[in-house]
Amino acid sequence: MRTLGATLESVESGIVTIACGFDERLTQQHGLLHGGLLASLIDVACGYAALSVMPAGREVLTVEFKINFLKPAKTDRVIAVGQVVQAGRTLTMCEGTVFDATRQRVLARMTATMMAVDAPSP
């Protein structure tokens, strides 16, 4: 996330918000923020949301996601919000939304499945 210039905005149990400012290096051929950037931000937001409800000693890995790009990402900042829908012992279902800087426009929506795994030993 450091490479993308993303910042962790808020963390609550089951809800995580990550934001990223506009950077020309993160655009596609039309000057819009790239869909891969939006997918990365919302995947990480959903992953951290899932992690926030895991017991000690457990982490998560993304095993599946579906993203819909709804509007062009022409904004000076994007805000990705990931939220747990259903947390299970092995699989956790999340939904995520990417907003523009004003939070007035929804740019993308994601559904994701996270799998709980044992945390690596130190």
For the terminal residues, how far apart are their CA atoms?
Answer: 23 Å
Q: In which range does the helix fraction lie?
A: 10-25%
CATH class: Alpha Beta
Average pLDDT level: 96
Total of DSSP H or I helical runs spanning 4+ residues: 1
**Structural class, from secondary structure content?**
mainly beta
What is the domain tally?
1
CATH superfamily: Hotdog Thioesterase
User: Biggest β-sheet, characterized?
Assistant: 6 strands, antiparallel
Kindly state the number of beta strands. Answer: 6
Q: Please name the CATH topology.
A: Thiol Ester Dehydrase, Chain A
Note the overall shape: elongated
Question: Which percent range describes the beta-strand content?
Answer: over 45%
Spell out the helices and strands N to C: EEHEEEE
Note poorly predicted spans. none
- Taking strands numbered 1, 2, ... along the chain, how are they ordered across the largest sheet? 1-2-4-5-6-3
Assign the CATH architecture: Roll
Radius of gyration: 14 Å
Model description:
With 122 residues, this protein is mostly beta strands. It has one domain (6-118): Roll (Thiol Ester Dehydrase, Chain A). Helices cover 14% and strands 48% of the residues. The protein contains one helix and six strands, in the order E-E-H-E-E-E-E. It has one helix at 35-51, and strands at 6-12, 15-21, 58-69, 77-87, 91-99, 106-118. Strands 1-2-4-5-6-3 form a six-stranded antiparallel β-sheet, covered by helices on one side. The two termini are 23 Å apart.
